[in-house]
Amino acid sequence: MIPRNVYQYxxxxxxxxxxxxxxxxxxxxxxLVKSLSQMRMAKAVAKxxxxxxxxxxxxxALADCLELMDMSIDRVTDTLSALAxxxxxxxxxxxxxxxxxVLTNHFTCLDGVDSIDQPSLKNLLQDxxxxxRASLAVVASLSASDSDLVQPLNGGFPSWILGKDRKILESxxxxxxxxxxxxxxxxxxxxxxxEAVNSAPDKSQTRYVIHVKSxxxxxNVEVGKKKKNVxxxxxxxxFTILTGSLNVVDGxxxxxxxxxxxxxxxFILQDIWIQNTAGPEKHQAVALRVSADQSVINRCRIDAYQxxxxxxxxxxxxxxxxxxxxxxxxxxxxxxxxxxxxxxxRKPMASQKNMVTAQGxxxxxxxxxxxxxNCDIIxxxxxxxxxxxxxxxxxxxxxxxxxxxxxxxxxxxxxxxTGWAEWNKDFALxxxxxxxxxxxxxxxxxxxxxxxxxxHVITDPNEAKKFTVAELIQxxxxxxxxxxxxxxxx
Length: 490
What we know:
- This protein is α/β, with parallel strands linked by helices.
- It has 10 helices and 26 strands.
- Strand 1 (180-182), helix 8 (193-199) and strand 2 (208-212) form a beta-alpha-beta unit.
- The chain is globular and about 55 Å long.
- Pfam families: Pectinesterase, PMEI.
């Protein structure tokens, strides 16, 4: 049977795509094949528009769209391959993850071209969004019947971290065996990080380790989608510094402003300080953007002001990091676990309010969200002395189905007693899911928290377990194959 909510999101499904199948897998294949054709058409239109216009910001937004379409074409192709051999909950989980990312890519593109007067491109994007919503509804219906296949996990790094990688993640820098070394003084194989990334083989099935020696590296680094299983290791978050200053005010898009932008799956970053030094007056200026599946960020400092950490899409795990910023400084629409980290709000511009998170889930069938577990949510010294002037909130809903849970964490007194802030009046207050469970500290009291339909004070451990690594998103429909460090889930 065709899931009922397919008609809700894409009522023309049967007639437009010529659907004959009565089973979900056949319907999904039809949608995805059509989506591939439409994405290639959207690429052609975006290229044609880019040639005609002279506006720098519009050209940058269209360039983002072209990259996002390339990423999406690869993901849909991967999903079609998995669909041909669909045999387990793991396959369904991958499909949900990949298609959730594709939908996020489409929205990122549409947001970027919003001010460009090109109805044909926008109509194509809206059509792609509708079809991907329908595809996710089908995947959700297929996943539901196999939910009993998800197994509980025990402690350790995620299961997609291979044994060799575990040893690297647990070891000191001096014990890391690198494929190449980056050193500013010429003592290594390369003097820039980008050169070392470029040296990595495309679509590698084995780990490629880049050791970046102590120093300040002023460059914007991109790990492209073909650079899979790359690991970048520094000499410590106080000694190896990657710094940039691209920002929206000076003409960059938010997507392109990242000092380090990652799209290659299986990425690992360790013992490095990533910063964007544009400053608060430059507004959106990203330090780290992750658009790569099954990524690990371990023992790193991620440092900027507005939009510090762009958890753009796919599965991401952060451990023992310091994340520093002001407005929406952890944002995006990946499936993200941030564990045992310091989350530090700093002093913003006058009249600004600090927002720790701005999660961007756009559809109820996306298995995305931010889980902050066993972290310290604190104020920087400059904010602490003036915290009464600059309210800090745990988050606000960037998109309609925004989902963020803070649990078992120490919340500082700089966090406003209401806890959470509106984005624009009552937008998303009924459809978001914000939750708090078993937190501690002077800012953890919930008696004065917001009274929104979508806000939850979680008291039942079984409810809280849905937001552990084992069952973070939709009852754990995909995380059984990944996992992170935890004890009995909580």
